[in-house]
Amino acid sequence: MPDIDDVRQGEKVGIGVPQQTDTTLLKGLSHLDWGMKDRLSRVFDRKSGKTVMLAFDHGYIMGPTSGLERIDLSIVPLIPFCDCIMCCRGILRSVVPPTVNKPVSLRFSAGSTILTYLNEECLLDIEEAVRINASLLAIMVAVGDPKFEGLTINNLTRTVDLGTRYGIPTLGVTAVGKELVRDARYLAMACRVCAENGAHVVKTYYCEEGFEQVTNTCPVPIVIAGGKKLPELDALNMAYRAINEGAAGVDMGRNIFQSDNPLGMMLAVRAVVHDGEKPEKAIEIYKGQRKK
């Protein structure tokens, strides 16, 4: 117990100095509980308010796809240079060292693969997310899918409820299937549906025309998916345009780990997202690393 014999009246009360309040840089999230804000502050850079997430959860529907055959060799060396990792629990436990000290966006659903129908998924146990100290719960939402729209939106709402109970934010991931499109009208609707149902962050695709409509009509932060492998300069241009049109970051996988210089590409993407570097200059970072 503290010594109570010499209790002195405090004098440094700061009269005239308002108490400092640390407000979040992320739109729509100022009313969250402390635990959620703490987790989000690890995902999004405190200075830029943006994030570079490294996605390597593809194996849960694709198996050992190109670049992910040996995650210990291709992905683990890149983890120190990203802000957050997005992966499945199996790979996290079997390959990713627990000493990397990076926030985890956990793929919180599992189900069908590319061999059948995508999006027929079930949820993990919320206690599993607590055990691995997840910072985000990533859940697929197939708005417009005639077969699985209702199922995936139900999964989203249940994930939000479970995450709220334990202070873990939800990342709503908009799915794009064979029947769905990637124009601003559809993406704006899909993102808004995710946010309206409680998603704290939304992951979606970039579209060439009208992306500002997507970001401006979504009341919570949007991060863009990298999608299929593009030429490096094209991927940097996509990231640059998305950030300048309102995105709060990128969640890239194949455009980094399938590059012929993954580390250089990671550093180039970081320069675009966090420093506002133009693609023509950022590509020099990629090229410079390739020469080493």
Fill in the keyword field for this structure.
alpha/beta, eight-stranded parallel barrel, 12 helices, two-stranded antiparallel sheet, 292 residues, TIM Barrel
Question: What this model shows, in words?
Answer:
- The N and C termini lie far apart (59 Å).
- The chain has helices at residues 34-43, 59-62, 71-74, 89-94, 126-131, 149-166, 184-196, 211-216, 232-244, 254-257, 262-275, 279-291, and strands spanning 51-55, 84-87, 104-107, 109-111, 121-123, 136-141, 170-174, 201-204, 222-225, 249-252.
- The protein is globular and about 75 Å long.
- It has 12 helices and 10 strands.
- The chain has 292 residues and is of the alpha/beta class.
- Helix 9 (232-244) runs parallel beside helix 11, helix 9 (232-244) runs antiparallel to helix 12 and helix 11 (262-275) packs antiparallel against helix 12.
- The chain has one domain: Aldolase class I (TIM Barrel, Alpha-Beta Barrel).
- Strand 9, helix 9 and strand 10 form a beta-alpha-beta unit.
- Strands 1-2-3-6-7-8-9-10 form an 8-stranded parallel beta barrel, surrounded by 5 helices.
- Helices cover 38% and strands 14% of the residues.
Would you summarize the structure shown here?
With 292 residues, the protein is of the alpha/beta class.
Number of helices: 12
Strand line-up of the largest beta sheet:
1-2-3-6-7-8-9-10
CATH fourth-tier homologous superfamily: Aldolase class I
Strand content: 5-15%
CATH topology: TIM Barrel
* Terminal CA distance: 59 Å
Given helix and strand content, the structural type is alpha/beta
